[in-house]
Design brief:
about 65% helix; alpha+beta; single chain; elongated; 12 helices; four-stranded antiparallel beta sheet; two-stranded parallel ribbon; about 475 residues; Outer membrane efflux proteins (OEP)
Length: about 475
């Protein structure tokens, strides 16, 4: 339930001041309710013991999210296609049977000679059955090219699965951090609202005593309304982030909303300090191990193998054929014989189909090579962006930690100055706003550092639940 904080200020003299005082006192209970965080997980005295760590959320998503199921299905299909291509290396054995009814009597067995003393049998019904064996002895690399292509496509499917898992893990991490950020920002906003409430109480008392100007009430009223609007927006963002996380992790929204998410920080920041010296090494690792690069590299190998297989169709095929056939009439006179033969197949004219197939395969190979080159350039850019984001977030954390501490001290001093009458309300409210900005920036910078490190791990092909457990520290 969201309660909007509304403070109303009247003139500071006579009956109007007394009315303002009565109205402000009536609002005090409502204001306290508005400042109570809507998330029970954020309260120290909550009885909810639910814990959802970053590693748990990623693991749940990897087990159930549909993109992973689709990638696994495509990998299984690639495995089946490879088995189908390899089957072409083996002989083909088949059993055939037929029963044919003719309008006029038909010879029952083939004529291997003509003997007037032993004329052939004729009948309207012919039964024929047999076993045949066929094998392609030589195809000049057509089958080998197809097997290599399918083997490479299986590797591409494995890489695509790894890429899907890394993409999903990154998405879960960012969503998890969004929830943490929104929750921490709500806490900071509640602290500011509490401070504004205290200032409202002080101004109310001064108005009753006739020691404050109307402008003081209007000023704190405006600040309180802005702070309340910011909190409502933050609560809405938190609700969206929690629902996204619940969907990704395949858990009820109530579990996320009512649960305590453990905060996440990097255990080791040595990479940030040495990022400049290791950039070239990181780029090489990314170009060798990035999931999207591995997928496109395997696809490039597959297209070149397919081109080789298509080019081999310009040469003839040599096949071995054998069969054992039994023929006869409906009731008797069955006779069996065996057959063995070699055949050569070579299409002399295909209307340009064979040439077009070669051109198509060549174009696909060139396109795959260019896509691979673009992916390698892309991962280099990704490494540069991730390192820059890491350095920026790390520097901002150091600066904002100091800024937040100094802002808190300034707020304390300005508050004391107000209490003794030597300070101004404008300076105090400005100090409170600066403190909120510093705290919000620090929260976002800490989570941005984790997000950038996770993105770098994804590009390097290292992102996994084990990597998260080793690198990201979960804090209660």
């Amino acid at each position: 339930m969201k309660v909007v904080l509304i403070l109303t200020f009247l003139v500071a003299s006579g009956p109007q001041a007394e009315a303002w005082a009565r109205h402000s006192s009536a609002l005090k209970g409502t204001h306290a309710l508005a400042l109570r965080p809507a998330e029970p997980a954020l309260q120290g005295g909550t009885t909810d013991t639910t814990r959802l760590t970053l590693v748990d959320a990623v693991g749940r998503a990897l087990r159930s999210y549909p993109t992973i199921g689709a990638a696994r299905a495509m990998r299984d299909r690639a495995t089946a296609d490879l088995g189908d291509a390899r089957a072409a290396w083996l002989p083909r054995l088949s059993v055939d049977a037929s029963l044919t009814r003719f309008e006029l009597p038909m010879v029952v067995a083939p004529l291997h000679g003509f003997d007037l003393r032993n004329p052939p049998l004729f009948h309207n019904t012919l039964i024929q059955s047999g076993v045949s064996l066929g094998y392609t002895l030589l195809d000049f690399g057509t089958r080998a090219g197809r097997v290599r292509a399918q083997h490479a496509m299986q590797g591409a499917a494995d890489a695509a699965l790894g890429n899907a898992e890394a993409q999903l893990a990154t998405r879960v991490v960012n969503t998890y951090l969004r929830v943490l950020t929104a929750r921490d920002l709500l806490v900071a906003q509640d602290q500011r609202l509490n401070a504004l409430n205290a200032e409202a109480d002080r101004v109310r008392k001064l108005l009753v005593e006739g020691k404050a100007a109307r402008i003081d009430g209007l000023r704190v009223d405006a600040e309180a309304k802005r702070a309340s609007a910011d909190r409502i927006a933050g609560a809405s963002q938190l609700d969206v982030a929690e629902r996204d996380l619940a969907q990704l992790a395949d858990v009820p929204w109530e579990t996320v909303h009512g649960g305590v998410l453990q905060s996440a920080r990097l255990k080791d920041t040595t990479l940030i300090d040495s990022a400049g010296a290791t950039r070239a090494a990181l780029v090489r690792r990314a170009q060798a191990n990035a999931p999207e690069v591995l997928e496109l590299r395997s696809r490039a190998v597959a297209t070149r193998a397919s081109l080789s297989a298509v080019k081999a169709t310009r040469l003839p095929e040599l096949r071995l054929n054998s069969a054992y056939i039994d023929r006869g009439r409906a009731w008797d006179d069955f006779s069996a014989e065996w057959q063995v033969g070699l055949s050569v197949s070579y299409p002399l004219f295909t209307g340009g189909s064979r040439t077009s197939g070669i051109h198509r395969a060549d174009a696909e190979a060139r396109a795959a090579d260019e896509q691979l080159r673009a992916a390698e350039m892309g991962v280099e850019q990704g490494v540069n962006r991730s390192l820059a984001a890491l350095r920026e977030a790390h520097a901002r954390i150091a600066a904002l930690e100091s800024a937040a501490a100094q802002s808190a001290e300034i707020v304390r001093i300005e508050r004391l100055s107000l209490d003794v009458g030597s300070g101004t309300q404008s300076d105090y409210l400005e100090a409170e706003a600066n403190l909120l900005r510093a705290r919000a920036g620090l929260i976002e910078a800490r989570h941005a550092e984790v997000s950038a490190r996770v993105e770098l791990a994804r590009i390097l092909g290292e992102l996994s639940t084990d990597w998260l457990a080793r690198t990201v520290e979960s804090q209660p």
